[in-house]
């Protein structure tokens, strides 16, 4: 088992928006790659200036939402954090993943911890707690 993380908290998506990171990966020339573990995510950029274009986010931290897709479908949860550049959100108690924590010293033992992982924003819908139904604002 490989130990890959040092902290047992959810990690933010990371990527290079300057256009210098692994140019040989880009096939169309207007997307920039971002790696998190073994997965790759793309940042939308303009064709002319190669600057990052943020997605329109219908959610903000603290919104009550319902998961519409995936293993946690139907769960009502709350948004913790949003990343408009990658169209990702971190929600409380959904998208649970395992993180392997590396030992920092020789006498420590590594461990595996469950944390919330970021999910695509299109998997969520706003939830009205008064009526008990999901829907658009």
Automatic annotation (TrEMBL):
GO molecular function terms listed in the Swiss-Prot or TrEMBL record: RNA binding
* UniProt xrefs under InterPro entries: Rib_uL2_dom2, Ribosomal_uL24_KOW, Translation_prot_SH3-like_sf
Question: What Gene3D superfamilies does UniProt report for this protein, alphabetically?
Answer: 2.30.30.30
Q: Of which family is this protein a member?
A: Belongs to the universal ribosomal protein uL24 family.
Q: What is its main location?
A: plastid
Keyword list, A-Z: Chloroplast, Plastid, Ribonucleoprotein, Ribosomal protein
- GO cellular-component terms in the record? chloroplast; ribonucleoprotein complex; ribosome
- Where is it located? Plastid, Chloroplast
This chain belongs to the protein called: KOW domain-containing protein
Upper lineage is: Eukaryota, Sar, Stramenopiles, Ochrophyta, Chrysophyceae
